[in-house]
Structures are given as structure tokens and as C-alpha cells.
Amino acid sequence: MSLKGKNALVTGGSRGIGRTICVRLAQMGAHVLINYVSNPDAAEETRKIIIAAGGSADITPFNVADADMAQDTVKALIKKAGSIDILVNNAGITRDGLMARMKEADWDMVLDTNLKGSFISSKAAARSMMKKRWGRIVNISSVIGFSGNAGQVNYASAKAGMQGLTKSMAREFASRNITVNAVAPGYIVTDMTRDLPEEIQEKIRAEIPLASLGQPEDVAGAVAFLVSDDASYVTGNTIHVNGGMYM
Q1: Radius of gyration of the chain from Cα atoms?
Q2: 194: pLDDT strictly greater than 90
Q3: What 8-state DSSP symbol labels residue 239?
Q4: In terms of C-beta density within 10 A (0-12 exposed, 13-18 middle, 19 or more buried), how is residue 80 classed?
Q5: Which of 8, 9, 16, 101 has a CA-to-CA distance to 82 between 20 and 30 Å?
Q6: DSSP line for 170-182
Q7: Contacts (Cβ under 8 Å, ≥6 apart) of 152
Q8: Is 187 a catalytic residue?
């Protein structure tokens, strides 16, 4: 599954699942564009990991929720690199709270970053893909977008919205040989889940048929498949990576 000669933009690629996706795509031969918004040191660490392994990567800071900034930056990236062939919409935030107490600003912030940000980045990158008549877009959704979760009405709504975005873009771009799919992770071992009390982790594992949290590499593997030629006839679909938590 070689991606040699392809340019891949990964939003929110500085750490966690995003970092692992960046490393995996670089291992496959892609030149990776690592996006971040607030942690340049983490982005540089991701770049160093890729370079040390013999890969190729650059860092590109921009806020996916800022339409003008995102579109201008992606346009500049396309001009410099020649094209963006692969886009992974991974950038996302949480602002949890019960709906009755949730501030409208917390709703807007999560929807703007997690859903609108994917729309903005896809719209900007798709121009390059349509011109080349080849492209891969992968949206990182979540099991929460399918099951819902108390205290995360904003996050669940944004991730559920990504399913409609994915399917609609898949239909619109198919004639240009651009596939659009989603990956919906369950509970994955990241800095956030590591900080959960052990009793909470045990409760989560009890709800998962495979009885363990997933690894970032599990998500990166699904992304790797979807951007490869092996998935050239797969579009408008979601791969659930959740250990059977949601079936």
C-alpha cells in the first residue's frame, strides 16, 4: 500500500491519534503535512519522529474552525506542494457538560471545530483533488456519534453530522475519482483516557466485547486502508474501530 508521491494533510496531527496517523502515512511513503493549532512543540515532535524513521513531513499551523485562515493556508500548501492528495479530518475538541447547563459558546465551539472545520478543510483540499481527478478524504468520527453519550450532546451531534457530511461528499466527488469515508473510533488509549480513574476504565472495558481499549495504531490502520488503492472501490462508508462496543 504505497503512497509514494502523495501529499497528505492531517488536521490535529500533533499528538494522540492524529500523530499516529501522520506516522503511518509517512511510513507508506506520503509526504505528511502536520496541522496543529496550539501546540507547536508537539507538532515538531511528530515531525521529528517521522524524519527519524526516514519519512518526509512539514508542519502547517492553522485553525480549522477559521474559514479564511484554513482556506488561505490550504491554498498556499497546494501552491507549494503541487497538490493535496489525501486529507484526514482529525482535528477535534470536547467541551463536555449536561445539556441543561451547557453554554451556547461550548456548543458552537465544538460544532465549529469538529464539523464545520471538516467541511472547510475538505472544500479547500478538494479543489486540488478534482483537478488531478484523484483524492482520498477520511473523516475521523466517533462511536459517540452513533450511540450518543450523556454530557456530550455537542460532541455527539458534531460526530453524527460527520456521517451526513461523509456520505454527501462521497456522492458529489465520486465522478472525480475522489473517495470519502469515515473512521469511528471507540475508546482509544490516549492522554485523555490514561488520566481516567482506574474504576472508570474498568467500567468502560466491561462495555467492550473485546474487553480492552483500542490503540491509536488501530485507528491509523483503518485510515491507511481507506487512503490506499486497496480501498479504491470503497466510498461513503464508515469503519467502526471500537472493539465491538457499537454494532
Answers
A1: 17
A2: no
A3: E
A4: exposed
A5: 16
A6: HHHHGGGTEEEEE
A7: 94, 96, 144
A8: no
pTM over 0.85: yes
Residue whose C-alpha cell reads 458552537 in the numeric block: 108
Contact status, residue 34 vs residue 22, Cβ threshold 8 Å: yes
Mean per-residue pLDDT, 198-211: 92
Q: How far apart are CA 62 and CA 200, in angstroms?
A: 34
User: 238: which strand partners?
Assistant: 182
Under DSSP, the state recorded for 30 is P
Residue type, 201: Q
On whether the CB atoms of residues 186 and 149 are closer than 8 A, the answer is no
Query: What value does the mean pLDDT take over residues 153-163?
Result: 98
> Residue 45: which pLDDT band, with cuts at 50, 70 and 90?
very high
Q: How many CB atoms lie within 10 A of CB 197?
A: 8
CA–CA dist 93, 110 (Å, integer): 6
Q: Which of 36, 155, 233, 246 is catalytic?
A: 155
Long-range contacts of 35-44 (CB under 8 A, 24+ apart): 35/9, 35/10, 35/11, 35/60, 35/61, 35/62, 35/64, 35/91, 36/12, 36/61, 37/12, 37/61, 37/62, 37/63, 37/64, 37/91, 39/14, 39/15, 42/14, 42/15, 43/13, 43/14
